[in-house]
Design a protein that fits this description.
With 560 residues, this protein is an alpha/beta fold. It contains 21 helices and 24 strands. Helices cover 34% and strands 22% of the residues. It is elongated, with a radius of gyration of 29 Å.
Length: 560
Amino acid sequence: MLLSFSVTIHAQVTQTDDDLALEKVSLQLKWKYQFQFAGYIAAVEKGFYKEQGLDVELRPRQSELNVVDEVVNDKADYGIGGIGILSQYANGSPIKALAAIFQHDALVFMSQAESGIVSPYEMVGKRVMFDGTSGNDAILRTLLNDAGIQLKDINIIPQQMSINSLLNDEVDVISGYITDQPYAFLQKKFPINIINPRNYGFDFYGDILFTSDDELKNYPGRAQRMLKASLKGWQYALEHSEEMIHIIKEKYGAEQSLSRLRFEARETKKLILPELIPLGSIETPRLKRIADIYTQLGVTPALSEKALNHFIHQPSTTLSLTEAEQAWLQAHPVIKVGVDKNFAPYEWVNDDGEYVGIAAEYINLLEERLGVRFDIISDHSWDELMTMAQQNELDMLACLNETPEREQYLNFTDPYIQNPVVIINTDINGYVGALKNLAGKTVAIEKGNFSNTLLSDDYPEITLLFTDTPRQALEKVARGEADAYIGDAAYANYQIKNNDLINLQFAGQTQARAVYRMGVVENQPELLSIINKVLGQLSEKEKKKLNHNGWASKSLPALN
């Protein structure tokens, strides 16, 4: 999987390549020109960026420059960073990862072969040159931590980009890139030990192409073009490494010799793994493992899976928006959405204060694809939220059924999930079968339920007992205060399983279905059309994943 949920938003205007003026874009590299950046150099030299309408300036890094700061402060549009950019994101930097070019981190420890330091266990009390204060060397800190070694247990020497400290016996261990420094030792016939975290089970991403939230917001679609050309450049560089080595040396003035660049090219390919993994792949589960390690080391606060998904920006199917819709999004970077805090599995607020559930999955998808932020309003009752919608104090509601009453102040999106409406009673009352068999009985149902009109108009013989919430209605049936509950099958199933309502059972079907939509206030027609366009793009596979992402049972218990 290459990245996750995002979209190119553009006006419905067609331009030819000849008409398209090149946009000037800057890419800040994390070091000087060498094969480590061959893909981006290839994209420049072979015209791949120009094919995407981009005039890209590559900037080699100066010694004290912080690449993330350059991008966040608009001094560069894009940057190349190590996995340490995840720690900066966790600490508040507004950035997004576009692709992980290196599937493995190049950082390793190196020691003199005769030193006897062949693993992290021998480093206690030794002089170790590496940056132990940031996320950049987190993989090395993880290796030490796993061996029970704290930073106070070693003598940390400030990092220098040279092997001389080890050659001159000024330090016992240095950190460096496995793609480059070993060659320098080989040339000097200086045998070394390489202590690679991957040999101990620690495997982090290496070089990552990233950009800022501002770039994504201000130039919709440009990041996708930048990524497409960059990946094409890397494909070319890996297939034509000798040609690129000469370009890097002769045109870009690389300090390394041709033979050293060849060594770097061979080792770089081992970290990219183009034959095994699609170029640029970056996945949330792997990031989660890295983020958890960062938290254990005290480098960053904990990151939820949602936050990690937000760290990744994915180009996906093009979403064609009108100029009016684009203007609306630009004018509304924050959208107020009312949610029911107690309507699991569709939507609720968990014990950690997080908005979760099936509807939340769709809200997250919209947030990521549209580049906006949803302000979740959950500290009001459902009736209060309805009143707020009528008074235009909200932009939308996330999960509700369409009714004639609600149509007076809400416009409804296309449905995104539906389930049967069923009859629930206690196991001692047996199978009911159909609504007509509840004549003369009391049915508990929450106020405002879309089924109320059906029951009152078509089954007047049924007595309705209204409650404030559907859960209260189920509890009244469980206690014998009502004969049955009529409602959504998935909701009832979830509540019965998770609230020990063990004496309740499914006792019959109805012809009705709960059809859930988003409700948009009447004065925001652009928002309605935008959401419908996103929903309309979803494949059946995507819908199935969203609707059954662990929130609800995929099958309901058999009726008794």
